[in-house]
Amino acid sequence: MRLLRALGWVLVVLLTVLITVRWAGWDRITPFIQAMVFVPYLALASLLGTLVLFAGGRRRLGFFMVLVTIAYGAALLPRWAVGPESRPKGYTLRVMTVNLNAGSADAKALVQRIAAVKPDILAVQELTPGEAGALGKAGIGRYLPANVLRPAGGRTGTGLYAQGALTGGHLSGTTSSLARARMSVGSVSLDLVSVHTRTPMLGHTVADWTHDLDALPTPKDPGTQLLLGDFNGTQDNVAFRNLERDGYQDAAIAVGAGLKPTYTKWPVPPTPVDHVLTEGRVHAYRISAYDLGGTSHRILVADLAVG
Q1: One digit per residue, pLDDT tens: the chain, 307 residues?
Q2: Which of 126, 79, 148, 122 lies closest to 230 in space, CA to CA?
């Protein structure tokens, strides 16, 4: 019995500390940055803990856990409270993004998905020279003939493919080589970036991750920004939320799909680390995701209206 009471107190303290860190934006160091990925699952733990406390007659602690559960719920509510939207007025644009797992993703399967989904833009991360060649052999050029590619060995290469004309470039000052391009949609000039940040694990990788996020374009920059890719962060990381504070909108949040996981590899629970961020005259109205062999990241597809 004493052991159960002690474990109960540990759970209460842990849940309280982590939701406090989340709301206060104190997740800037290890292990709090990494722990934020568990927030949606800790919300369920807090609810279960509340029920157990009341069932065990511990009413005061139970009422406290009710407040903790509400705090978790408030953090999650904006991610699913909005329903799918009808298509807004403007040009339609379908964008796709996927992390290719250091060139290990199934290139043929990806091109088959492109043929079925018919995106206007594809952003890829962890693009190696070999994977770029495999995509070319699989026929990606038949569907997305324009490209701006910055392949590299390991996990630092990225690329952009499109149906329309691209004016190529790159974003400097980040740990990965980020492909960047301009594309016109009607009267709107889109500034596209295939985003891949460092994974914040231990030591200097945390500083690299924060630096990568800070180096991304802001809505104040010329053109209309559209960021697609693997941000290695979620809505529970203050560094990622700062992008929204600057004026970006997460396409998945806009349509109530903010809890849809895009990464599934142990020991990380299924979690949304891949995002499409819009601003200004670009609005999301539908989100979908598909599995792809050879990578733990899912293909994320967003339907946008531009205008």
Answers
A1: 566 666 678 889 999 999 999 999 999 999 999 999 999 999 999 998 888 888 888 888 889 999 999 999 999 999 987 766 677 778 999 999 999 999 999 999 999 999 999 999 999 999 999 999 999 999 999 999 999 999 999 999 999 999 999 998 889 899 999 999 999 999 999 999 999 999 998 888 999 999 999 999 999 998 999 999 999 999 999 999 999 999 999 999 999 999 999 999 888 899 999 999 999 899 999 999 999 999 999 999 999 999 8
A2: 126
Which residue ranges make up each domain of the chain? 2-79, 91-306
* CATH class (in words) of the domain with range 91-306: alpha beta
Separation between Cα atoms, residue 159 and residue 196, nearest integer Å: 10
Q: Is 233 left (phi over 0), alpha (psi -120 to 50) or beta?
A: beta
- Which residues, 6+ apart, have CB-to-CB distance to 73 below 8 Å? 43
Query: Tokens 């940055």 — which residue?
Result: 33
Q: Which residues pair with 179 in a beta bridge?
A: 170
Q: Which residues pair with 192 in a beta bridge?
A: 181, 226
* β-pair partners for 158: 125, 150
Q: Which amino acid is at 3?
A: L
| Tokens standing for residue 251 | 């396409």
